[in-house]
Amino acid sequence: MKGFGLASSLALLLAMPTAQAYPLDSYAETRIGRLEAQRQVEAGEIPGEKQPPGAKLTRAEVDLRLLAHRDLDIPAADPGFSRQVTAVLGEYADRYAISVLDLSAIDAPRYAEHQGGLSQNPGSVGKLLVLLGWMQALADLYPDDTDKRWALLRDTMITADDFVVSDHHTVRMWNRETQTLTRRSLAPGDRGSLLEYLDWMISASSNSAASAVMREGLLLRAFGKDYPRADDEGREYLRKTPKSELSASLAAFLEDPEPRNGLDLALLRQGSFFTQTGQRRVPGRTSYATTRALMTYLLRLEQGRLVDEFSSREMKRLMYQTERRIRYASSPALAGAAVYYKSGSLFECRPEPDFACKAYAGNIKNYMNSVAIVESPAGGRRLYYFVTMLSNVLRRNSAEDHQEIGTRIQRLIESMHPVAGAAR
Prior knowledge:
With 424 residues, this protein is an alpha+beta fold. The protein has helices spanning 27-30, 33-42, 79-88, 127-141, 146-155, 194-203, 207-223, 231-240, 243-255, 257-260, 276-281, 291-302, 309-319, 398-416; strands at 11-15, 96-102, 110-114, 157-159, 171-175, 180-184, 191-193, 338-349, 365-376, 383-392.
């Protein structure tokens, strides 16, 4: 977390295993290829791992839930609730920051917070700000025409170039002609729609996909309503434009939407590309987040106040978990819940006696970040709460720790809203 000293390292990894999003019935509307592959798995037409009950909501069922409560703000932290939430963190509570907003009883919201103002690099959670940048840019171009925005998202084709180099994350690529699925990292020359790239960015947390859509964001700012342009025109613009101008454009693309949407740029910022090539081509700034600022993001999303209702709704659908759940979202207690989720990690190691560097268990830094909207059960939605969490527990597998905390928080929320007549 902010303020911890860093030393030279053997390994510096920005890591995120695959976790897919967007409702599974949406291939015809979105043309996101992997949705058709997963539909066929669910139907038993091809082999593959099926989804838990909470991942099977339809596109129509994934909707904004606070449109009638747009004036709701994060309430003052409840001391008793905060103590309960802090207790679930266990002996390493001082290495965590967490915020929990329980809206299960919408007329009596409760908020818990532990170190909610502590700042840390958000890792891949920052991709939510890339998504916001795109939705704001589209709304600025076509404020009264959501059909035009949707068509641009769905129909604009992107060809990956060197901005995607390099990334270990893999994405699911569906060949529509051969009806076959491959899973690999993106490479220069790969084509997909803008919406597909946004899905890869959020669902598989592909750094390459994120850098590709950030590159496209620069082109959108440059060409306006003349976007998209031919690939060679885009390359020429990026080649001829001075780095200082590109950096300023990137900052405007990522940062300008925040104050316009009620977010505090001093507490939440994504400052740079997610690939080394992107960072070299377009120098960026530092990135940081607090759990309280991330909670504001989730609340305004559900209120339809991130850009507008159309944008907020599509952002929520892109966050919907519809493949292998990871980290916090992999808690068995959430199998029946709809989970709208993003996580990110950043760990770093150096030589140490009797220590072997492993993923999510760094000994210099071991950032793990999770944000989630939970509707439990997915259909009934009796429980409804938001969680934002940052941690830096050294030498421990934080992916497993976040999973366990997800279980404990679910049980805590259940205990606060017992089912009438249930055995105690």
